[in-house]
Amino acid sequence: MSITKLADKINEAKAEGRIGLIPFLPAGYPNRDQFWREILELDENGADVIEIGMPFSDPVADGPVVEAASLKCLEDGINLKWILEGLTGHRAKIDAGVLLMGYYNPVLQYGLEKFAKDAQAAGVNGLIIADLPFEEGLVFRDMLAKHDIALIPLVGLNTKKDRMALYSRGGNGFCYYVSVLGTTGGTASLPVEVKEGLAKAQEVFDIPVALGFGLKEPSQLKELDGVVDAAVFGSALIKHIDSGKSSAEFMKVWK
Amino acid sequence: MKRGYFGDYGGQFVPELLMPPLLELEEAMEKIMKSDEFQQEFARLLKEFVGRPTALTHCANISRELGFNLWLKREDLAHTGAHKVNNTVGQALLTKMMGKPMLLAETGAGQHGVATATAAALLDLECEIYMGALDVKRQAHNVRRMELLGAKCVPVDSGTQTLKDAINAAMRKWIADQRITHYCFGTAAGPHPFPLLVREFQAVIGREAKAQFKEKTGEMPYMVVACVGGGSNAIGMFHEFVEEESVKIVGVEAAGTGEPGCTNSAPINLGTPGVLHGMNTLLLQTGEGQILPSHSIAPGLDYPGVGPEHVHLHASGRAQYGTVNDHQALNAFQMLCRREGILPALESSHAVAWVLENRDSIPKDANVIVNLSGRGDKDMGILEDYLAEHSK
Questions:
Q1: From residue A23, how far is each of A27, A96, A234, B154, B391 by CA, in Å?
Q2: Which of A56, A173, A203, B252 pairs with B214 at a CA distance of 20 to 30 A?
Q3: Which residues of chain A lie closer than 8 angstroms to B287, CB-CB?
Q4: What is the pLDDT of residue A152?
C-alpha cells in the first residue's frame, strides 16, 4: 500500500462531489467482539477512512466522551498488540483507509521501529499522535514514511501559517484541522474563524484537509462544502452506539 | 543540548494547539522576566509578601547526636507555609505583565492550589484550580482555603481522580482558553519551558542558603538534600550548587510503604523512561506505557513522574537519588518535632529521614543542609490516621 492511500480515499470522495467521512471509534468499543463488527459496518456504509483510537491512561487531547470510552477499553485490557492483530485479521475486508490515533508513550514503549513495521503489516495507512508536535515528531515521521504510513499533522485555530508550513513540507495523508479550541466533542457550532482557518490550511497544505472535533449535526457539513475535504466524527458516533443504534444508521445521516 | 532538553530528558510533547502558548511563554521569559521592572518587583514581593529570606537554622540537638551538623533551609517559614509560593508569585507576576487576566493551576493535596490562589488574590487575577475529585474529598480544608482566597476549585472526576488527572484537565482548559489564561504549573516538570521557568523562581532557595551558610561559616556545605516529587523545591535548592563540584547533592524519593512492589512515588529509582505531561522523563508505568498510580504518605510527593532535570542530574552522576519509606519519614517527622521544635511537612520529612538513615556515611563534623520545603500543620489529618492505624 502507498503512503498516499488516505489522501487518495479522500480525493475519491471529492471526485464524487462529497465530503470524505472519517468515523472514529476507540479500539475495543463498545466491547471486543462488537468493535470489529462496527468497523466493518462503518466500512460498508460509506466510511472513506476509519480512525481507531489506541487507549492511553492520560489522554490530554480528548474530551470527556472519548476519554471515558477509551478508559473503559483500557480496563478491558485493550492494547496495541490486540489492535494490530485484530486489524491484521480484518484488514482485507475493509475497503476504507485505516488510521490509528493515540498518544506517544504507549507507542514509544512498544518500540517506534517495531510499531512502524507491525502497523504496516497490519495495513495501517496513517497515524495520529496527539501529543507529538512537529519538532519532537520528525524522526518518527521519517521512520513511518519508510513503512508507507503517514504521520498526520494536527493543526487548529491558533496555528499560524509558519507552523502550518513546517507540517506541510513532507506532510503525508491529510491535514487534520481541529475545529474548536479545546478538546474533542466540544459544543461550539462552527464559527467564522473556523472557516477562515480551514481556508488558510487549504492554502498551505497540498494534501486534503479534514475537519475534526465538535461536529454534531449533519447540517454542519453543508456549511463546509468547498471549504473542507473530509470530516471526522468521534463523540457523536460513540453517543450513537451508546444509545443502542447501529453504525449503519449513523453513517446514513451523514452521507 | 537540544532546545528544551536536559541531556536526553525534557522536551515538548504536547498537542500542537499548546505550542503557541508555550512559545508565547518562552518569549515572555526572554523579554519580560529578564527586565529590571520584573526582577525588581519580584524581589520586592519575595521580601515583603513571601517573607524572604527564609532562615537557615542549625539543629543543635540533633546535630550533637549525629556527630555532624544538620542545617535546615526554612521554606516552612515562607508565606502559606511552603516553597510553592516562590513559584506562584513569580508566575502570577509574569501573567500580569503578559496582560492575561487569569491563572489556571492543578493541585494534588492543595498546597500549590492555595499558593496559586494566594498569588492570584495578591495580583488581582482570576483563578481556577483543577483538583482530582478524590483529592477534593481528602483535602476539603484546602479547598475551603482556596475558595476563601477567591479561587474556583474544579473537581476532576476522570481517571484516577488525583494529581495526574488534574494536570490533564488543566492542560485541556489551557488549550481552550489560552488567549486569556496562563497555566501556573506547580512543579519543575511538564513541557519546556516549565522546568526552566519553575527552577528560575525556586532557585532563590539555593542562592539564599549558599549565601547564608557562607556568611556563618565561610565555607561550602558538604551536602545539600531535598525531597523530590515533581522536584521543584529540590531543583530550587540544587541549582545554585550544581556548579560547586565539592558539594554532594542528594534527592530523596518516596518509597511508599517500602515493601517490594508497593505503590510508591519513586520514578527515578523504580521507574522507566517514557513520555507524560509533555516531557520525556522517568515514569511509573506498565510495560505497555500506561501510567501507574503513585502513592506516598506525603501527598506532595505523590506523582508518577519527575522533573526532567532531576533525571539528567541522576544520569550524569552529578546528584544521587535515594528513597525513604513512609515509616522512616514519620520517624524523622517526630524527631524534628520533639528535638528541634519544628513541625515539618511529611514531604520535607523524607529529606530529613534520608540524612538520619544514612548518618553512617556522612563524615564527622560535616555540614549538611536539608531543604525543609514546608510546614506540617497541613498533615495533621494524615498523621492521626496513620498513627491510629499503626497503634492497633
A1: 12, 11, 6, 32, 58
A2: B252
A3: 109
A4: 97
Q: Are A47 and A231 in contact (CB under 8 A)?
A: no
Query: At B305, phi and psi to the nearest 5?
Result: -125, -170
Residues A18-39: what's their mean pLDDT?
96
Cα-Cα-Cα-Cα dihedral sign, residues B70, B73, B78, B82: negative
Residue B133 β-bridge partners: none
Say whether pTM exceeds 0.90.
Answer: yes
Q: What is the pLDDT of residues A210-228, one digit of tens each?
A: 998 667 777 777 778 888 9
* CATH architecture, domain B5-46+84-198: 3-Layer(aba) Sandwich (3.40)
B3, B12, B17 member nearest A156 (Cβ): B17
User: How near does any CA of chain B get to the CA of A182, in Å?
Assistant: 4
- Asked if A2 and A149 count as a contact pair (C-beta separation under 8 A), the reply is no
Instruction: Please report the sign of the dihedral spanned by the C-alpha atoms of residue B113, residue B116, residue B122, residue B125.
Output: negative
Distance from CA of B16 to the nearest CA of A (A): 5
For A129-178, give the DSSP string.
ETT--HHHHHHHHHHHHHTT-EE--EEETT--HHHHHHHHTT--S-EEEE
Q: Could you tell me the pLDDT band of residue A146, with boundaries at 50, 70 and 90?
A: very high
Partner-chain residue, chosen from A71, A154, A183, that has the shortest CB–CB distance to B159: A71
Residue A58 near chain B (CB below 8 Å): yes
| Residue range B159-189, pLDDT digits in tens | 888 899 999 999 999 998 999 999 999 999 9
Distance from CA of A63 to the nearest CA of B (A): 8
Checking ipTM against 0.90, whether it exceeds it is yes
Scanning the structure block, which residue is given the C-alpha cell 493543526?
A155
Q: CA–CA separation, B278 vs B99, rounded Å?
A: 25
Active site residues of B: 59, 83
Ordered DSSP codes for B350-385: HHHHHHHHTGGGS-TT-EEEEEE-BBSGGGHHHHHH
The Cα A249–Cα A255 span in angstroms is 10
Confidence (pLDDT) at A179: 76
| Chain A residues near residue B174 by CB distance under 8 angstroms | none
- Are B187 and B308 contacting, i.e. CB atoms less than 8 angstroms apart? no
CATH architecture of the domain A5-254 equals Alpha-Beta Barrel (3.20)
B51-81+202-390 to CATH, choices 2.10.109.10, 2.40.240.10, 3.40.50.1100, 3.40.718.10: 3.40.50.1100
Mark whether A76 is an active-site residue: no
Mean pLDDT taken over chain A: 91
